[in-house]
Amino acid sequence: MSASDKDATRLIHAGRVDEPLLRTVGPPIQKGSTVLVPTAAALYDDSKATYGRAGLATQEALMSALAELEHATTVRLFSSGLAAITGAMLAVLKAGDDVLVTDAAYKPTHRFCDRTLKRFGVTVRYYPPRATPDEIMAMASPATRLIVLESPGSLTFEIQDAPGIARRARERGILTLMDNTWAAGLLFKPLDHGIDLSMQALTKYVGGHADVFMGSVATRERALTEALDQAIMDFGWSVAPEDAYQMLRGLRTLPTRMTRHQQSGLAVARWLRDHPRVARVLHPALPESPDHAVWARDYAGAAGLFGVVLKPCRKRDVHAFLDTLQIFGLGFSWGGFESLALDGDPQFGVRSFRETFEGPVVRLNVGLEDPGDLIADLDRALAVVGAR
Ligand SMILES: Cc1ncc(COP(=O)(O)O)c(C=O)c1O
Predict the structure, then answer these.
(1) Cβ atoms within 10 A of the Cβ of 382, count?
(2) Which residue's C-alpha comes closest to atom 16 of ligand 1?
(3) Tens digits of residue pLDDT in 4-56
(4) Phi and psi of 378, rounded to 5°?
(5) pTM surpassing 0.85?
(6) Could you tell me the distance, in angstroms and rounded to a whole number, from the CA of residue 210 to the centre of ligand 1?
(7) CA separation for the pair 267, 270 (Å, rounded)
(8) Exposed / middle / buried, residue 243 (Cβ in 10 Å: 0-12, 13-18, 19+)
(9) What domains sit in the chain, N to C, each tagged with a CATH number?
(10) Which of 37, 56, 63, 359 could link 30 by a cystine bridge, Cβ 3.0 to 4.6 Å?
């Protein structure tokens, strides 16, 4: 055997960590597909993790912290927010089932329902985002297995009566799944209000820095945990420990950031409401919002994302407004530290119950900048609407 051959074996086994790690403030970033087990009998001991795909120490730390946030018994992680909502549906649905989905759901949620669920023999029907629990229940059939909520609705910000819908659905043995990304698990706790599956795109407020994708699904029901685990195992879904670490880091400052998002968002929303080129602001925390009473009853606060309906103007005015903004970036996503804007109208094509607004709808993500600077930026940009 040559020296280099001996090195081959030695180097493969050198440097293993056998001692317990020193304690740090954050969890270790534990990377591993193979889990080394102590004995042959332990290879097939299903009570312990024997493979790293479903997550090791770092993902466990994040799941446990999110379970505290969501008042859940279990939280499962997915590679993006979209993967969390589609994963939860795949975990609980089967061919022949019927699903009722809010029409104000995030556009890719519509797309998944209309393409993939349909292909697998699941019927999807949409209900108006302000439908009452009675109206939604009137649509339910014996095949209805799941009601999907998203509150507030994407782009139009309607607040649903989640407690009422959850109560009525339970009476009928129908499951509820809520996209709670706007409230970030902090401002509204779906599981406390009877929702079965609470989902959020961690990519937004929990991550908070617009640089990592992940989604979570929280539940208190053992059968639903088993269904999620089975789907995770069957489909092979997995999230990286580095990403889980970053999410946990974001979680530490979530309440502090949310307070600032709420304050700045409301300051900007109130200023916009009085602007002569604005028809109205779609923000449930404004008292004139038709959703204000339900929001005030159920929510502990507001996020920094809301809609602005401009007075009637041309598409090129909307583009001129957006292109004049200097502090607000133009881009999808939200929940990060930086302010963003986009025009909403191109996304309304998927809807079945389209509310008619006075003019074009713009969405603003109010970040952590000085709200005075944001208002000045909007003021400068609104001045060009209709000015050419
Ligand atoms: C309400 C809502 N849910 C889910 C998602 C999906 O999150 P992700 O981008 O992590 O897939 C988004 C993304 O914009 C969203 O706005």
Answers:
(1) 21
(2) 106
(3) 778 999 999 999 988 889 999 999 999 999 999 999 999 999 888 999 999 99
(4) -65, -40
(5) yes
(6) 12
(7) 5
(8) buried
(9) 41-252 (3.40.640.10), 254-382 (3.90.1150.10)
(10) 56
Per-residue model confidence as pLDDT tens digits over 204-262:
999 999 999 999 999 999 999 999 999 999 999 999 999 999 999 999 999 999 999 99
Say which residue the tokens 């530290």 belong to.
337
d(CA 378, CA 271) in angstroms, rounded, equals 10
Contact between 333 and 202 under an 8 Å Cβ cutoff? The reply is no
Beta pairing, strands 215-219 & 278-282: unpaired
Residue whose structure tokens are 């009722």: 100
C-alpha radius of gyration, the chain, whole number = 23
Whether residue 3 has pLDDT greater than 70: no
For residue 265, give the nearest of 290, 285, 243 by alpha carbon. 285
Instruction: Provide the pLDDT confidence category of residue 134 given band limits of 50, 70 and 90.
Output: very high
Cβ 80 under 6 angstroms from ligand 1: yes
Q: What's the pLDDT tens digit per position in 298-343? A: 999 999 999 999 999 999 999 999 999 999 999 999 999 999 999 9
Residues with a known catalytic role:
53, 106, 179, 204
Q: Which atom of ligand 1 lies at the shortest distance from residue 82's CA?
A: 11
For the CA of 105, the closest atom of ligand 1 is 1
Q: Which of 384, 230, 256 is nearest to 320 (CA)?
A: 384
